[in-house]
Amino acid sequence: MNNLTRYPLLFLLVLPCLLFSQTKDFSKVDEFARNVPNSKTTSISKLANYLTADFADEEQKVRSIYVWIADNIRYNYKVIRKENISVEDRIKKEQATKVLKTKLAVCEGYSNLFKALCDESGVTCEIVTGKSKDSRGRIPRIGHAWNAVRVNGQWYPVDVTWGAGGISSEKQKYVKNFREEFFLGEPAFFIQHHYPKDPVFQFLDLPITLKEFSSNKTIAIEKNTDEPAVFENITDTLNHYASLDEKGKMLNSCQRILRFDPDNDYANYKVAKIHYDEAIDNWEAYQHESKEVIEKKSPLTWEKIEKWEGQIEVFKKGLEMTKKHLNKIPSGSKYASTKRRILSSIERNNSIHKMLDKQFADYKNFLTQTGAPKN
């Protein structure tokens, strides 16, 4: 332990043991997970089935997955040091299937593989992103990723990256060092060094702020009964989140972030992008369908006009919401250049709105003159 130091995104923290105590005996599960034949690791589905089929309890399933990943996946710290790797290449390297094949990953890959194996085993799991803190209280510039998993109806934080090992300062290489405390961890323990973007993943009724996380080496979790809880029922909130599709999860999460931190540039950008994409989708759908009519491939009807007006209404409202959230992003943000590009595009197309109003009026006038029946 003395030779292991924290590498950005990696881990090895010495915290008071009172924050965590592993009382359950997982020795049989652990032994099983550490002796999986190579023939069972050729695909996510095959590995997940082998790791969990013999266990009826979700806690044992998740434990088996956690131990196998910690025992078999090595931290690829060269990726972190490689400055010229593109975002696209990094994402490909960290896909669950790629990590299973190469047995190398950074935190993103560890959490992707953990989720993929849980999903395949019928265990509800989410990926959590945010910031981490080392044992000296320093927060690395690069973010971190871990998981939240629902076990027997209860949600827990899990960080298999930090539970697997660390970088030796003397040998400058990865050293396996299994850690119990990052498996189904206690919220009071995790918040000492994990700060999720979405406050619900703190698993605290009264989430702390980033300022509190950044300025305190040790976070004291105190329940003030005079202050109303931010989350009345964290389990229900997370169960609802888990039931949504990916776009729904992003919007739900960002709305929660903005309720807690209205000026958060990440959440404002993501919400703006969702509204912008939805607006453009409706605009393109209208263009495609109206072109069919103009080219006389499809007849003009009152029903189509009503549908188009609905699409354009979504288009207009989407652009307004886009502007609302983009305007909250400061000029120094990493999203600033994208903000300027999108706002510029919106401004250049302001004349479209008046043109559309006239076009719909012409459509309606044509149908009225031709006596087309209304539905």
Can you tell me about this structure?
By secondary structure, the chain is of the alpha+beta class. It has 15 helices and 9 strands. Helices cover 50% and strands 10% of the residues. The strands form 3 sheets. A 4-stranded antiparallel β-sheet has the order 6-5-4-9. The chain has a 3-stranded antiparallel β-sheet with strand order 1-7-8, with no helix packed on it. Helix 12 runs antiparallel to helix 13 (302-326). The protein is elongated. The N and C termini lie far apart (76 Å).
Query: Rg to the nearest angstrom?
Result: 25 Å
User: Mean of the pLDDT scores?
Assistant: 87
Spatial gap, N to C terminus: 76 Å
Give the strand line-up of the largest sheet: 6-5-4-9
Flag low-confidence runs. Answer: 1-21
Pattern of helices and strands? EHHHEHHHEHEEEEEHEHHHHHHH
What's the total number of strands? 9
Main β-sheet, in a few words?
Answer: 4 strands, antiparallel
Shape: elongated
Range of helix content: 40-55%
Content of β-strand: 5-15%
The number of helical elements comes to 15
Structural class: alpha+beta
Can you tag this structure with a few keywords?
375 residues, 3-stranded antiparallel sheet, 50% helix, elongated
Structure summary:
The chain is built from 15 helices and 9 strands. The protein is of the alpha+beta class and 375 residues long. A hairpin with a 4-residue loop joins β7 and β8 (173-176).
